[in-house]
Each structure stands twice: as C-alpha cells, then as structure tokens.
Amino acid sequence: MKKHLLAFSLVLLLAGCEKAIQHAQEDLVIRAMTDGQWVITSFTLNSTNISSDFTNYRFKYYSNKTVDAINNGAVENTGTWEGNANTMTISANFAAPAYPLTLINGNWQITRNSWTYVEATQSSGSDIKTLRLDKQ
User: Fold this and answer.
1) Per DSSP, what are the bridge partners of residue 119?
2) How many structural domains compose the chain?
3) Residue 89's Cα: distance from chain center in Å?
4) Predicted confidence (pLDDT) per residue in 50-81, tens digit
5) Contact 34, 62 (CB under 8 A)
6) If you average pLDDT over residues 8-24, what whole number do you get?
7) Are strands 74-84 and 66-71 parallel, antiparallel or unpaired?
8) Taking a C-beta distance cutoff of 8 angstroms, is the pair 115, 68 a contact?
9) Other C-beta atoms within 10 Å of 13: how many?
10) Where residue 124 sits, what CATH number does that domain have?
C-alpha cells in the first residue's frame, strides 16, 4: 500500500512540475513580447519583398494578449495575439484590418527567435509569407 501511495504521490508531483514548467515558458513568451515595441524589418509574400509596406508601423504587445498596430505614431488598429512556446507558434488577429495588416492575421510558425527578434513563416492556400520582427 505504501508503494502505491508513494507512486501516486510521485505522479502528482511530476504533473505539477510539468504544469509549472509550461507556465514558466508562457510567462517568458509574454515577458519577451511585451517588453518594448516591435517592427517588421522583413516581410515576403511568395518570395516578393514587401517590407517597405510596413515601414511606418510599430507593434506594441500587452500581457492581456492585445496588440496595437501603431502607424506613424497613432494606433491604427488593436488586435489580439497568442504565443505558444511548446509549439513554437504565434498568432495575430486584427478585426477588419486595412492593408498591410491583413497580411499579419493568422497563425505563424516560428523558425528562429531570440529575446530581440522573431522570424516566422505562414502558409495560407498557395501563399507563403515570411516575416522578421525586431524589438526596438
């Protein structure tokens, strides 16, 4: 009986540790994204470089999972965002966005990242998009 109780306690402890690790990873994603503003320094759509379409934009991410698209110093649109360290994905959703914000909506697969940049790709139908966000 003691062996079963010990084994059960160990399983509960390990499950709690796994949740704590997952929570810590989520906290790191939030902390990284909400610290400062971000700019899109590179954006390609089907191998065509359209980075200049984002020149005047800055993005401010908040811990309540909202994001402001700031165009020439003024908030143009507020959307939502989600980041997942386990699946290495990030998503954005701006309601009724104008071009070029329409290109950002959806789920992105993170291919490279650090505390100060994120590179990601998105496939949507026949479109392939890549972007690089850099922290300012």
Assistant:
1) 112, 132
2) 1
3) 6
4) 999 999 999 999 999 999 999 999 999 999 99
5) yes
6) 47
7) antiparallel
8) no
9) 10
10) 2.40.128.270
